Amino acid sequence: MIDWSPPKRPAVYAEKSLILAILNDDYPPGSILPAERELAGKLGITRPTLREALQRLERDGWLTIQQGKSTRVNDYRKEGGLNVLNALVQYSEKLPPNFVSNLLQVRLALAPAYTRQAVENSPSQVIEYLKEYLSLEESPEGYASFDWRLHHTLTIASGNPIFTLILNGFAGFYENMACIYFMQVDARQASREFYRSLYEATKSNDGIAAENITLSMMTESIILWESQSGESL
Asked: What domains appear along the chain, each with residue ranges and CATH number?
């Protein structure tokens, strides 16, 4: 049975509705939103609630609000912040072309750095997690879960919480994409060798070796993803 009751958090409902409208190009970058009264009526909310939602969207970079002027829709790809990135992940069916390949390029830039810091800062924490690879379930889901938790562990062990905050923005989405990636036998084999090599480097407390191993694996993962998905930069 459909629940026709009003949304419990109307500002959140309005925010999500407007994000979807922007992603659907109902309100493309550079366009002007309807007047508050009209827009509030379309959404079935009060004008104060609409203003709350608009302020959130302005904070994240979706909109530009100027006193006495119409509200303009920004080009979120150029003017948005991390919360825009998080929203794109939530609406994965609306992702821009080559989004995952671009995301993997960002991981390529970050992962070697936080891996080295993790090995140098807290090798015992990394070893404790990595030794689980020996009993890793041979399935896309098993690898996806293990890989997510590995990178999460590495960011925490690095001692830099910004790495963890960035990674957490992709929780759920990361594992969903990883399940597709790990359907390839070659991808699972490459990652198992990565876990083994990283485990050995960590036991030797060799941060530089861990960094280089991670750099090599992150580069290979981009090649494997693009060969499977057809995405390319």
From this structure: 10-78 (1.10.10.10), 96-229 (1.20.120.530)
